[in-house]
Amino acid sequence: MTGCCQFIALCRDRQTLRQGKVVEQSQEYSFYVTSLVAQEATAAELAQHIRAHWAACENGSHYRRDVSLGEDACQISGRKAAQAMATLRNLVLGLFELQKHQEKTNAPHFPGWQRKMTASAALQLIKKGL
Length: 130
Description:
By secondary structure, this protein is an alpha+beta fold. It is 51% helix and 21% strand. The mean pLDDT is 85.
């Protein structure tokens, strides 16, 4: 069976802390759709799937984009310039993933690879088509 079988509404309580004290509280609702029928997954299992999805996002590309490439600290405000920078960041992450997948790098993690990669070496990779 394919298609939408369940809608999930998830309520998150949020607290903003400053110096260990709660300064703001809010609730945020998120909505999800799944093709799993009720008999295929319990509410707890669905919640675990949602947590796993967001953990992969946070620990995967978001962490690398923010910490290694400084995306959140970037001061570029123009829409086209910001899109160009996002494209370049995606290119850099893609080059690393392709080299890792093809076993053409011995760097186990992105920061180590990034420290060794120069602009001219990256251009050579792009020219060669990997």
